[in-house]
Amino acid sequence: TMMPGETPPPPAGTAAAAAAACANCGVLQQNINEYVAALIALKQKMIDGDRLLTEYQQKCTDILHISIKISALRCQVEQMLQKILPLEKCQEELGSLKAELEEKKVCL
């Protein structure tokens, strides 16, 4: 089976046969060089892909940690609101009592 670009060999032992063999070696060497270059490029793409994947995984981990912190902060805010609401109610009641005392003071 001949490679693409290969020519059928001339009768063995002739100068033409030697020249054809030399040309075929050149084509083969060129193909090998191209395959090696393609493999090197592919290996670099794999290295780059691994690096990007590692960075992506790190960002996912960071996002998870941030989400956990946000949830904790939300809980704290909710707890603070639950403490503030009764205090606001007390403040209103104190305001009402103060107004009543002022009225009684004026009456007295």
Question: Secondary structure elements and their pairing?
Answer:
Elements: H1 15-107
Overview of the molecule:
With 108 residues, this protein is mainly α. The chain has one domain (25-107). It has one helix at 15-107. The longest helix is centred in the middle third of the chain and has 93 residues, at 15-107. The radius of gyration is 43 Å and the shape is rod-shaped.
Integer-rounded radius of gyration: 43 Å
What's the number of helices? 1
Oligomer: single chain
Strand/helix succession = H
Helix content range = over 70%
Report the sheet with the most strands, covering strand number, pairing sense and barrel closure: none
Report the β-strand fraction as a percent range.
under 5%
**Judging from the principal axes of the Cα atoms, what is the shape?**
rod-shaped
Number of strands: 0
Q: What is the number of domains?
A: 1
Structural class designation: mainly alpha
In the predicted model, the low-confidence regions spanning at least 5 consecutive residues are none
Question: Mean pLDDT, nearest integer?
Answer: 89
| Cα distance spanning the termini | 123 Å
Short key terms for the protein model shown above:
mainly alpha; 108 residues
